[in-house]
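Quick illustration for those who missed Monday's session on complexes.
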Amino acid sequence: MQNAVKGKDGITRYLVTIKVNGDEYTRIVKANTLLVNFLRDELDLTGTKRGCELGDCGSCTVLLNGKPVDSCLVLAVEADGQEVTTIEGVAGVDGLDKIQEEFIKNGGLQCGYCTPGMIMSAKALLAKNPKPTEKEVREAIAGNLCRCTGYVLIVKSILAASGQEMETYYE
Amino acid sequence: MSLLPEYRDPSKKKEYAVIGKSKPKIDGPEKVTGAAKYCGDLKFPNMLYGKMLTSPYAHAKILSIDTSEAEKIPGVKAVITHKDVPSKKYGISPARWDENCLCIDKVRYVGDKVAAVACVDEETCYKALAAIKVEYEPLPAVLDYRHAGDEGMPNIHEEYPGNINTEIHQEFGDLKKAFEEAYYVRKDVFQGQRAYQSPIEAHCAISMWNGNKLTIYSTTQSTHYFQYYIAREFDLKMGDVRIIKPYIGGGFGGKLEPTGLEFNGAVLAKITGRPVKMFYDRADMFYHNRGRHQGTYELTTAVDKNGKILGVHANFILDGGAYTSLGIATAYYAGALLPLTYEFDNYKFDMYRMYTNLPACGAQRGHGAPQPKYAFESHLDNIARDLGIDPLEIRLVNARKPYTTTVNSFDIQSCELKACLERVAELSDWRKKKKEGMPKNTGIGIATGAFVSGAGYPIYRNDWPDASCMIRMNEDGTSATVYNTTVDLGQGSDTVICQMAAEAMGYRYENMRIISGDTEAGPMDFGAYSSRQTLMSGWAAKRAGEDIKRQVLNMAAAMMGLPPDDLDARDGIIFSKSHHHPTKWQPLTYEEVVSQYCKLYGPLIGKGMYKVHATGGTFKGAAVGTSPAYSFCVQAAEVKVDEETGEIEVLAFYDVHDCGQPINPMLIKGQVHGALYMGMAETYWEEVHFDPKTGVCLNPTLGGYLLPTALDMPKIIKNEIVDSYEIVAPWGVKEVGEGSTNPTMGCFRNAIVDAVGVTINSTPITYEKVWRALKDKKEGKQPAEIKMPPPPANAAVKPY
Ligand code: FES
Ligand code: FES
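Prediction with FE2/S2 (inorganic) cluster bound:
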């Protein structure tokens, strides 16, 4: 890592450039700066939540080069030169993404704190598997904890976004 | 007056325009795009970050605190100890204010508050905390509530000798006689665990001063209680304290009381003259806790030969932790809500809530009721088995009927418990499964529950309205904004309140806006607890909506040349009920009428309020647990147990709820699923563990405290509501979100017994416990019995 500078406080800082939602941002970060904090504190992208900072809850899920990751487990320096998509990058200028629409329509959210992470995991799933089975949906969001919904209507929303109905839930 | 519920009277059955429909959540778009700001997402110019230093000992004297090293660290702006904060004790239950902003002479649990810092960033906070030197003299700790009251145990609070926090003894009817005359009497003892609300959003508070005015952004379930308690602590006028609730990431009871974050944050903000953001990390959450009380529950019930309950003795002991929190109410709720579902005339309730050197317990979803209900539903199944009665039938025999009064003077109006039982039986094919039997190692269990739709009395004594609401029309009539201080924790109150307001106004949901949870913007409402908002805040919204409609119809009457009585509004259109003509008396739009009104008279504002009628009896503690109305529900679960591993698979789950008339069916379903999820997890997995020697929490992470994932949910879920209408409620509504937690643990436990015939009388019913019980059974060993601890030595009254 050549772009390092040592501050007066004796701490080495690094120049990183991360492409977030299509735009490149260059910032100076410490070695221990987490990607989640980089997004939230440096870029004010607070849609990415922090629930545990230990990789347990998934509320900080973002896409790193298209793959879902817990951004609390990624260092900002590791993301240098990479591409990140956050929840703020999901909706287009012409409206919400289909997944977002279905979450609203099917009651896939309550407090909404897990929602950005859920949607990012769903986004990654549907990108590589447009017609997932219910089991695959559940597996894809198994790293995202939700304390409100019991996941039922979340699974329903994601399946609906893939044009499918839920098999195991009867209304 | 006819008491015939509206829905039963076909002539009155109305097609509503807005309520009863699964309208999308009003906050949906903001939440799915990440635009919604939660407390931790907020930033203010010049803002500092604050954190608290907590005790490493469960019980210790504080000998000295040296903050000098911490103060020297660059970026540390303030370090405070008890000397810098008010020494007035606070709490949420006025009968026991027992907590200090920062501990003065001793700490009472691992995690108790000792000092606090404000720094330029989070990282510096952690450095500063590590540099504070505290000298402690460890004291013997009380870590087992079952022995907290024993002779010779260390005393945790001087004011409460013998560590008794709350002692309750209530008796109704003649229990002795009931027991003597009974056909059968059975006693069982059950045990519950400490569970934790575990909202995914951690607590956070941002405090700032402007002169003598204090503003706090907080993760709160009640802006009003925070305003009141914070004003009290700092001797401020209520009007000088502004509490703002941004979006909240779940509460489940854990965010109902102000914490050290608000009090110490306010002091740090005052000292530094800058906004201070205080926050808990995940481990802090577990230590602050205020989750489900653990307890031991002894139940003795007398029945006749048909299984009809003649009398019940409930003898309970709870682990309260180091402080009261909402625990007095929890202690009362534990016994007071038991008589809701079944009718019996003789009842005795004894309760001790003990202080221990563990984090304080408070009000978790279902407040005080779920563990006792689990115990009672398990106990009732045991009785049914002894008498050879089907579990469904024994519940039908005893089920409460509408318009009855419980043994402890709770007035029930609507109650469709029987209908819920019958419907669950149908959905689950109960009778067929019982007749024909189920595959090996599979079983089905059933249980009932009931809950309040709002507490009959506020937490601190006052005679303010329980709820109030204001609606202002945008001048051109294209939108209407609700102002109140309800709290949407995710349950959807903002949505439901707007639906109700729009219905009352004859307006459109899609044009409703809401500003809730800012004490300076909206009139007083006690907030989100005891499942109160749909009924109570709903009344206020309905009345405010009607107030708008009255003014709009008056204005329209003048414009149309018709009497106001002849007009009505629906979907934003004002029309004559009797005058139909191709050109005259044409309907007007809300836009036309409101514009005209505002041009002539200025702002168009509607207001409404609600105050609960007097509820409950006159005996000591009679008020606690009362409500204007009670919901009822029945659940059944089908499980399969793996004989080799003890693993439990949930095959199907059924829930039928009497929640009055529904306002938003989709949100009701979401509440039931969430309650099922929590109840199921409390049955099998969730438990906050402490080192029995040190009181250190052993699993303060979301990986250590097991929340189910999407893969762990039941294969089949069927949930429905029955036709019901509550006469004291706006449009006949009742609660749904908390009541659904009540039957869950009991029905799962009963299903496990049905599947494999082993009884495990303590939760969580872990796979390991099941495996051990199966092994013991094979080896012909008797399962270890749970014993009721003796009453505390210092008890004023002993149960027998
Ligand atoms: S905050 Fe990253 S997984 Fe919880
Ligand atoms: S909606 Fe609240 S945590 Fe998922």
